[in-house]
Amino acid sequence: MSVQSAAADVDVDLRQLFASLARNWLRILVVTLVVTGLAFAFASFATPHYKATTQLKIQLNESAYTRPAGTNEDDKPVLDAEGVATEVQVISSSDILNKVARDLNLGDKPEFNDALDMSPVSWLLVTAGLKSDPAEIPLDERVLQKMRDKLNVYGVEKTRAIAVEFSSENAELAAKIPNEIAKAYLAYQADAKTKSNAAATAFLGPEIDELQKQVRDAEAKVAAFRSAQSDLLMGGNNSVLATQQLSELSTELSRVRANRASAEATAERVRQALQAGGSLDAVPEVLSSDLIQRLRERQIELRTNIADLSTTLLDNHPRLRAMRSQLADLDGQIRNEAQKVMRGLLTQAQTAQARENQLISDVNKLKAASSRAGEEQVHLDALQREANVRRQQLESYMASFREVSSRKNYLPVDASVFSEARVPSEPYFPKLVPIVGAAFVGSLLLMSIITLLQELFSGRAMRPAPGARYERIEQVAMPGASAPVVEPEPVAAKTEEAEDRPADMEHELEPKAVPESAPAPLEEAAAADAEPELVRSSLGEIDVEKAAEKLIASGAARAIFVSPEGDEAAASAVLVAREVSDAGLRVLLLDLTASGAASRPMLDSGLFPGITNLLASEAQFSDVIHADLYSDCHVIPVGTADPVRAMRAADRLPIIMQSLTTAYDLVIVECGPADAHGIGRLVGDSTEVFLSMLQADDEVAQAAVKLIESGYPDVTLVTPIGHETPGHPVPGRRSAA
């Protein structure tokens, strides 16, 4: 597992988090008691306020005995939510409130007039110009503003009721003012109806007189046009006589045409029967003749006799011949009679044709007369309609005028008070127990949350997540060669720290001894200590520019600098950081040396908070990151916190490195004379390891060999010799360190 992934596997230690409440119980309790005491004092000395409510019912209060004629209970207007909201605005209007204020002389009471009893503090604020002078505001406006602040008018939900709520320092005023507001509202409605009634009376009187004159003129025009200016004669069914006659003649003409057509058709059938020599029995008009019927009876009788005699006599017998001769005469007579019937039908058809021609002539004349009568009737109807409209309007106005006159002294308002405000016996503010209880609970909860957040953000409540493993790593920032001098502490303090500190932490805090004897040169040490399975490494000394180019080209996220020669060799990390920053990357230098050798020349001071303050939970990231005075690089110095306390949280270094790697393109760490175990916590993905050197001596060679043997075969030697930079002169070949 990489160090980066292990650094991300952290969890919140709930036991440690909530244990902070027990550690800080005294502070929480003191703050809670102070806030509760202040709340108790406020509730005890605050001016009591009383509240009372008057309720009104919004509906039409019309009596069943005084309701206008033609209306019933269902005709009452229904007031919707918008109507109730409108009445709420009317009740809280300035006119009604000013009337109540004048009736009750509220301007003479200090509660409603700030200019009467100004406190010394208010007087000083007014004198200094920090507060407006109440006396400069008109009295009515001051009183009205105070009343609006204390008044609450609202519609009761899902009802047509309105509540008028008022609060005051005086219990009697708290009940009296809403009652007076309700009375003023009812009086306003009654006055509005009285004015409306008077306005309606003043309007309807002259209108009725004018309409009466217009009705008389319109009816006179109708009578004059009907009698003198037109010859419109009315028939029995209240229609014009010409139109009625035209209708009757049209009916007669249709009947005559039908009779003529029937006679012509019957005569044509008789003619066809006579010409064809066929039987006339199929023609009903021929058979209806009495003579033809008698001839047909005689013909039947002769045929019967002929049939009887034919059985006993021969065909040439004189008697049979005589009977056949009589039968032939009868046929001729029947045909002659049929021709007479045909001629009668033709005569009837001619008569009907003449009658039809006469009726057509009469109809044409009546059409012209009816057309003239229709035009005159249209004009007459227009005059009649105008007269009727005038009369209907007159009757409507007269009915309304009678209604208004009858309700002159009875005008029911559309609201009534069904619950008057009563003088309250207890103030609604302040409530001692709720205020003190809320202050106690709120302050206790707030202080607990603040304590938990402080513990959480400090990092003391963070622990490795289950399954995360961290290899034991030696101390990074405090190597033995340049360890800070810590003054001896009292024996009791050391004993107490030793009891609280784990055994492995004590081992990490022990300073590491620097080898005093110089080993063999680099080539000989590498050849003597190398084993067959050791990874080969090519070491070459490069300058600052080449080191910066290597970091930029490789895209490294971290660069670890080890300076076995002491503080002056730390100049390599500073110079490389500035070179990479000048190339346009976001670079941060983390100084883990004991003396601040890397950050001190960048900040010109060693008193800035740094990594030790961050580890000791005395500062946040924004407090420990500073800008280099000579470049765009950022730097985290060693800091000013106690190193022993800071190293108790050394396990947080991987988390800190992960956060810095996320925020910056490159994080450069100057570790001083640290070994391979010391830099283990700082190495992650995309990490380059550099060995700073001033001269190639045995100490540098031994440090390089140890790094290679410990798993860092790509270590690179870098020297600051020959590179000049502002604020950080290049050291000599060897320092006193």
TrEMBL record:
Q: Where in the cell is it found?
A: Cell membrane
The record's annotation in InterPro entries points to: Bact_polysacc_biosynth/exp, EPS_ExoP-like, LPS_length_determ_N, P-loop_NTPase
List residues traversing the bilayer. Answer: 25-46
Pfam families found in the cross-reference section: Wzz
Q: Which residues does the UniProt record annotate as the domain Polysaccharide chain length determinant N-terminal?
A: 11-104
Report keywords, A-Z. Cell membrane, Coiled coil, Membrane, Transmembrane, Transmembrane helix
Q: How does it sit in the membrane?
A: Multi-pass membrane protein
Q: Which residues form a coiled coil?
A: 208-340
Protein name, please? Exopolysaccharide transport family protein
